[in-house]
């Protein structure tokens, strides 16, 4: 039973040092300066003398025989304390047995009872990540701290819930960042490709539109040219038809002739420039009505000799001069009717027909263009 008396105060470390002899050991019973407590006996604790270990003991990390040295030092300290206090030095009492737990054995037993580090929820995950990936092992100092330090409430909760630990979370974050960077790069590549495709499509559309516009302009120009040519051909055809029709209603004044003096020529026998066209032919050659009309004058006209004036329906006057004789002197005549004969009357040098054309009974014009316009080739 425990005693209520206070335990005697043991000697201090300095007092222990004073009691050491020259060899650095405690003196025995027979040594000079001994306390006379009696002879020292060898203490060999047995199973009966060793007190049973109760309660929980915190085991420090074993470091190359440190537990054995610590146990020896502790035993020496206890023995010194017991000897100094006199609790086991009474001559009339038997030596008090002292029990010391086998610290080294307990450490070995406790080490055997502890689970393997790889089986721990958090540390095992870190060890597994370190073994599977060389890049993930030294990724963060917080991972090492989490593996070596005590488990926090969040870590224990994650381990109990079966969720990922800090190592797996770090790995997941790294993978997420890599995926995000890869996704951003792929999206940028897609955007660049789409922009290039849009620009190419716009360029091709512009080129196609320009080509289509050029083709349309060329087609329109070709159509306009074809239309112009068609219109020109139609106009020529219409003119040919008109001239053919006029040829049926207009005819040359004489059938056989030679063109001599033309319109506008100057000569000694004329008071002014020549006002008509001369058709040289033998005397008595028939003179025909160029077109249907009415004979408005017939007779002697001075320097013109015998002259017949044929007025057409549009008011144009045709003068036939230097006639040798007149067949018709009045009335309506038709195209091709013989109205007179070639002669050399008036101011002439030889037989010929002098023809003048006076539109609207006015001044004379060149008869040749007028005859060609009416389908007469002379």
UniProtKB/TrEMBL annotation:
Any one GO molecular-function label of the UniProt entry: metalloendopeptidase activity
Comp. bias (Basic and acidic residues): 220-234
Taxonomy, superkingdom: Bacteria
Region named Disordered: 1-70, 132-234
Biased composition (Low complexity): 136-150, 176-186
InterPro entries the UniProt entry points to: Cell_wall_metabolism_enzyme, Dup_hybrid_motif, M23ase_b-sheet_dom
Domain M23ase beta-sheet core: 273-367
Protein's name in the database: M23 family metallopeptidase
Source organism (scientific name): Streptomyces sioyaensis
Lineage: Bacteria, Bacillati, Actinomycetota, Actinomycetes, Kitasatosporales
């Amino acid at each position: 039973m425990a005693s209520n008396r206070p335990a005697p105060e043991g000697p201090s470390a300095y007092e222990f040092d004073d009691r050491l002899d020259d060899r650095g050991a405690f003196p025995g019973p027979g040594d000079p300066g001994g306390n006379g407590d009696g002879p020292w006996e060898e203490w060999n604790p047995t199973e009966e003398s060793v007190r049973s270990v109760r309660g929980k003991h915190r085991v420090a990390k074993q470091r190359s025989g440190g537990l054995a040295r610590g146990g020896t030092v502790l035993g020496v300290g206890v023995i010194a304390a017991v000897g100094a206090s006199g609790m086991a030095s009474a001559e009339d009492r038997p030596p008090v047995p002292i029990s010391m737990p086998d610290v080294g054995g307990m450490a070995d037993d406790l080490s055997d009872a502890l689970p393997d580090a790889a089986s721990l929820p958090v540390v095992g995950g870190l060890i597994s990540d370190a073994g599977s990936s060389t890049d993930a092992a030294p990724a963060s100092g917080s991972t090492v701290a989490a593996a070596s330090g005590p488990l926090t409430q969040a870590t224990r909760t994650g381990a109990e819930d079966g969720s990922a630990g800090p190592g797996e979370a770090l790995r997941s974050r790294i993978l997420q960042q890599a995926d995000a960077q890869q996704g951003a790069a792929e999206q940028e590549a897609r955007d660049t490709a789409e922009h290039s495709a849009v620009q190419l499509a716009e360029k091709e559309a512009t080129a196609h539109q320009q080509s289509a516009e050029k083709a349309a302009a060329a087609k329109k120009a070709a159509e306009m040219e074809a239309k112009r040519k068609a219109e020109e051909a139609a106009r020529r055809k219409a003119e040919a038809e008109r001239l053919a029709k006029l040829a049926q209603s207009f005819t040359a004044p004489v059938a056989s002739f030679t063109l001599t003096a033309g319109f506008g020529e100057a000569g000694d026998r004329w008071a002014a420039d020549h006002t008509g066209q001369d058709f040289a032919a033998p005397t008595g050659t028939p003179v025909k009505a160029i077109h249907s009309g009415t004979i408005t004058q017939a007779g002697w006209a001075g320097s013109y000799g015998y002259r017949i004036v044929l007025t057409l329906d549009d008011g144009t006057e045709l003068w036939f001069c230097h006639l040798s004789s007149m067949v018709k002197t009045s009335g309506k005549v038709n195209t091709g009717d013989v109205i007179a004969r070639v002669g050399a009357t008036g101011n002439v040098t030889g037989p010929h027909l002098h023809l003048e054309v006076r539109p609207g009974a006015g001044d004379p014009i060149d008869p040749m263009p007028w005859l060609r316009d009416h389908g007469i080739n002379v």
